[in-house]
Amino acid sequence: MARLLITGGAGFIGSHTCVVLLEAGHDLVVLDDFSNSSPVALERVQELAGRSLELVRGDLRDPVLLEQVFASADAAGAPIEAVIHFAGLKAVGESVAQPLRYWDVNVAGSRALLSTMDAHGCRTLVFSSSATLYGYPETVPIPETAPVQPINPYGHTKASVERMLADLAASAPDAWRIACLRYFNPVGAHPSGRIGEDPNGIPNNLFPFVSQVAIGRRQRLSVFGGDWPTPDGSGVRDYIHVMDLAEGHRAALDALLGDRPQLLTLNLGSGVGASVLEVVRAFEAASGRAVPYEVVDRRPGDAAITVADPSLAAERLGWRTQRSLADMCRDGWAWQSANPQGYQGAS
Ligand code: NAD
Ligand code: UDP
Question: What is the pLDDT of residue 347?
Answer without folding.
Answer: 58
